Amino acid sequence: PQSPADDVTGASPTNTGGGGGGGSGCFIATAAWGSAWSEEVRLLREFRDRQLRRYAAGRWFITQYYRYSPAIADQIKDREGLKMLVRASLTPVIYAIRYPVVLAGLILALLVIVLSRHTPQVATCSR
Q1: Sign of the CA dihedral 79, 85, 89, 94?
Q2: Structure confidence by residue, pLDDT tens digits, 2-34
Q3: What is the pLDDT of residue 111?
Q4: Is 20 within 8 Å of 37 (Cβ atoms)?
Q5: At what angle do helices 56-76 and 80-98 cross, to 10 degrees?
Q6: Beta carbons of 64 and 125 less than 8 angstroms apart
Q7: What is the mean pLDDT of the chain?
Q8: Three-class SS of residue 20?
Q9: Do the Cβ atoms of 36 and 21 come closer than 8 Å?
C-alpha cells in the first residue's frame, strides 16, 4: 500500500522496478549491504518514512531517488569494491541519523572554532 507521501510524489518502491531494493525502496543501501533487512538499511528506510516524507524537499528527493537509484543499485550489487565505497559513503549519514545530538554538537563546535579564528581584532593606537 502506498502512503500519502507516495501519492504526492508519484513514486513508490513498488512502481520503480529493478535495482534489488527488496520492496523497501532503499535500492542503493540494499545493494551495498546485501539485504533490505540489514540494520543500516532499516535505519535509512525509517529516516525516509519518518523525516523526509514530511517535507516537500524530502519528497522531491525521494522521487529523484526512486527514479535514478535502481540503475545505480544494479551497478553496485555485483561489485564488491563499489559496495565498500557506498557503505563508507553512507556510514556518516547513518551515524548522523542514529546520533543527531552528537552531530549537532560537532557542528556547533566547528562553528565556534571557525568563528573564533575569523573574529576581527580591534586595532589599538599607541603613541
Answers
A1: positive
A2: 443 444 444 444 433 444 444 567 899 999 999
A3: 93
A4: no
A5: 150
A6: no
A7: 82
A8: coil
A9: yes
CA-to-CA dists, residue 73 to 18, 67, 70, 83, 84, angstroms: 9, 12, 5, 9, 13
pLDDT at 55: 96
Bigger pLDDT: 124 or 44?
A: 44
Residue of 81, 70, 60 lying closest to 29 (CA atoms): 70
Least trusted range by pLDDT, from 8-17, 69-78, 81-90, 102-111: 8-17
CA angle 100, 104, 110 (to 5 degrees): 145
- Is-contact 39 94, C-beta < 8 A? no
pLDDT band at 53 (very low <50, low <70, confident <90, very high): very high
Sign of CA pseudo-dihedral 96, 43, 40, 18? negative
Work out the number of other CB atoms within 10 angstroms of the CB of residue 66.
22
Other C-beta atoms closer than 10 Å to the C-beta of 100 total: 10
